Amino acid sequence: MGKKAQKDQGGSLPNREIFERMNFLYQSSRFFATLAHAPTAEHSNQPPTPVSSSSTMPLARFYMKEMRQVARKSVLRLSPHIKREMCQICSSPLVPGVSCKKRVKGKGNCRRLITTCMYCGGQKRIMANSKPDSPHILFVDRPEHRTIK
Amino acid sequence: MSDSNKTSEIGFYTPLSETLKKRSGGPPDVPIDPVTKKFTPGYIERTVDTQVSDIRGQAAFRDRVDGRELMLVNPYREMPGDTRGSKGGRDKGGRRIRRKTVTAREKRQLKLYDLPKEACRYELFQSLNLMWNEYMEGLLATKQMPGPMGLFVGDGKQRQNMLARLVKADFHGALLEVVRSKCPNFVGIKGIVAQETKNVFKVVTRDDRLVVVPKTKTVFTVEFASGGHCTIYGDQFSFRASERASKKFKPKPTIDIN
User: Which of A23-32, A59-68, B46-55, B144-153 has the lowest mean pLDDT?
Assistant: First the structure.
């Protein structure tokens, strides 16, 4: 899941049901954001018209927004990986090429990876200075903070 | 030729003729107090209508106007650093401001959360329903009884636990059927929940229709894939889906829909 940011006490997770709910919302959102064609059902008579993710994006956005609100209400943290895939302003799931543009800007020490949401124009800027042999590891990803096995 | 002669005769600075004044209801003759050479006190005295305020004449000028500063321009609105309501701009220090929220107007204009017609395909939502069933299986599983059957078979205590989990669960993608409703049009609507808001379930039916079903005065049934169903009383459920996750429910007096 990767949603936790704190150390775990025993084997049980205190807010397990809420995490499961957020997980479900996240997966549903991703599903609608990355659609290429509509799945054909056995009983449908018409030829399948492709449903692209651009028309289901409002739904994907709605689920992301729900997920964020659930987290906010229960005061739970979202993993930074999930936050990076979500537009902060309109809660769209950011899929490169489909719903966002990723560009690397800047030179030398000021290189940034800029992700621009195609729907609201909101931007995320992440530093992209690290060298290939020593990449920047997020706090959550560091081995000493491993929580769920 | 004669016209231009006339205009030059009349001239730019000659006072308005009497006919013109009468016709336009022109500016009243401006009587200036001969002693103080001031216009305002006399004007207020004349124009303040005693029906509007109880203050008359000189008192009106003395109490309400004399010595007060009148703002003809709102300095706060026109300050150069004021970027309230603008999409992005600069703050007082000259730094670029980045908006962090979507306004309600933008939400409506960009139609950020409305589902378009092409997307209301029941087949799509069947896939969502599959995911929902898996989610439910995981949620309602216990050590003794994996799968949602724990809800229906277990003893009282376990059942309470399961019901509590259900109340906090998410219903997007659930197969919902309207069993009873105050408005008979809604009874019998069966479909998969696309969106859930504070008052309403937006459901996609088998014939690709998006139906908006209000929660109040309505009783729903949720069907699980492994059989079995549970009843939802809409009146008790009229909260935002995200709020339900952390809400303590207070029972309402009746479950009657009337």
Answer: B144-153
Give the chain B residue whose CA is nearest to the CA of A31. B128
In chain A, domain spans: 16-36+51-135
Cα dist from B24 to A132, B10, B12, B192, B257, whole Å? 82, 19, 18, 69, 67
ipTM of the complex, rounded to two decimals: 0.78
Q: Which of A16, A45, A62 to mutate to test the interface with B (most CBs of B within 10 A)?
A: A62
Q: Is B15 exposed, middle or buried (0-12, 13-18, 19+ CB in 10 A)?
A: exposed
Q: Which residues of A touch B122 (CB under 8 A)?
A: 41
User: Which of A45-49, A65-69, B59-63: highest mean pLDDT?
Assistant: A65-69
Strand order in the sheet with B229-233: B210-214, B200-205, B190-196, B175-181, B218-223, B229-233
How many percent of chain B have pLDDT more than 90? 21
In angstroms, the CA B125 to CA A51 distance is: 12
Q: For testing the chain B interface, which of A70, A75, A83, A117 should be mutated: the one with the most B CBs within 10 Å?
A: A70
Q: Is B195 close to A59, i.e. CB distance below 8 A?
A: yes
pTM above 0.80, yes or no: no
Contact criterion met (CB < 8 Å) for A21 and B118: no
